[in-house]
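Before anything else, study the sequence and fold tokens given here and see whether the fold suits the sequence. Record follows:
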Amino acid sequence: MEIIKIIWVYFIWFLTLLILDYVWLWHITKDFLVKEFWKLISLESDWSIKINLIAWITAWIIISAMIVTFVSLKYNNIWEVIFYWALLWFFSYAMYDLTNLTFLNNYSIKFTIVDIIWWTFACCLVAVNSFYFYNFIK
């Protein structure tokens, strides 16, 4: 029975991240992304961002598994979960964005900073969500 609860936590975390990412990419930062990365991203004829849906979903499945496995299920205190989740997420996104900044022409330093800060904060929200959800179904 415990494995079903853990699968539910993975699913809730994954779904929450997909929703946050959708809102972030297509509503909050769409114009910012197009302005900063118009040479690097694929755009539809209406200037909306074109994505590889399979890669997008696969990335969030892997990230969900990483975070839930190494943080959410490991700690019993909400503050520990938030702290370690924020650290893991900050390090992961800093590595991703700073690597892009290193190798990709015209990768925006402004975007790098915004992206690291947003996803560290957003994942703390998800940490709280998954922690309380897991403890609710326990």
User: Anything to note?
Assistant: The radius of gyration is 16 Å. The longest helix spans residues 109-137.
